[in-house]
């Protein structure tokens, strides 16, 4: 049984439309613990090895990694998140050499050492549209997060970035994204009498 889910729900028509099928009947837990975050979620300073390991631990491939990172075609990241990358990359008041120098100085004008705001578009100039601009930015060393830039450090993920960045809509990005989202929806499903099927996705019953 499937329902169709639009991403992000209210923005579907404005963003140009990523969508996928969501399997119904998923059993989820009733408790969220902040102390479980570190062992499960990837962080923005992860290198390619850490990213691949983190995804593999959830049954996701490096194809899923590069495809799902394409979610960063939408939204923003804060000055706080990129501060170390701009000002203290290796702990010697340096900037990440993988970041385009012109872009780095533009960011530094608005994002001061130790600063928290403003936020920056994850794919500059196109953060409200789901397209291949994210992959273009990454290819030009203008990916905002260390984890975005890291997609150039593996042969296969790099090839994918290049391929998608060649056409405006992303050669196969839309289709790939739907598939990987459906796969992500199958992570850690509870079985038997564990947990519950939620009446509303974001709330326990
Ligand atoms: C590959 C590993 C990933 C890492 C390390 C990562 C990390 C981050 C970080 C640090 C931010 C910015 C937070 C801030 O400064 O406010 C962000 C934003 C965002 N991420 Fe990811 N992310 C990853 C994968 C994903 C995936 C798989 C999705 C969804 C399929 C996703 C969707 C988003 C969206 C939509 C935003 C923008 C949020 C907003 O504008 O408020 N990310 N991500
Ligand atoms: C990635 O980070 C881990 C942990 O800090 C480190 O052991 C590893 O050498 C790094 N790998 C690459 C390819 O940079
Ligand atoms: C830069 O990083 C080093 C090593 O992690 C740390 O000792 C130092 O305090 C940091 N500098 C600033 C300004 O945060």
UniProtKB/TrEMBL annotation:
Catalytic activity: 2 a phenolic donor + H2O2 = 2 a phenolic radical donor + 2 H2O
Gene3D superfamilies in UniProt: 1.10.520.10, Peroxidase, domain 2
Disulphide bonds in the chain: 79-111
Position of the signal peptide: 1-17
Cofactor: heme b; Ca(2+)
Pfam families for this protein: peroxidase
Enzyme class, broadest EC rank: oxidoreductase
UniProt GO MF annotations: heme binding; lactoperoxidase activity; metal ion binding
InterPro entries: Haem_peroxidase, Haem_peroxidase_sf, Peroxidase_pln, Peroxidases_heam-ligand_BS
Keyword DNA-binding among record annotations: no
Cofactor comment text: Binds 1 heme b (iron(II)-protoporphyrin IX) group per subunit.
Record domain Plant heme peroxidase family profile: where: 15-205
Alphabetical UniProt keywords: Calcium, Disulfide bond, Glycoprotein, Heme, Hydrogen peroxide, Iron, Metal-binding, Oxidoreductase, Peroxidase, Secreted, Signal
Residues involved in Ca(2+) binding: 73, 123, 131
Residues reported to bind substrate: 42
Entry annotated with the keyword Secreted: yes
Gene Ontology biological process terms, A to Z: hydrogen peroxide catabolic process; response to oxidative stress
Residues that hold heme b according to the record: 72
E.C. number(s) listed in UniProt: 1.11.1.7
Function, as annotated: Removal of H(2)O(2), oxidation of toxic reductants, biosynthesis and degradation of lignin, suberization, auxin catabolism, response to environmental stresses such as wounding, pathogen attack and oxidative stress. These functions might be dependent on each isozyme/isoform in each plant tissue.
Family: Belongs to the peroxidase family. Ascorbate peroxidase subfamily.
Protein name: peroxidase
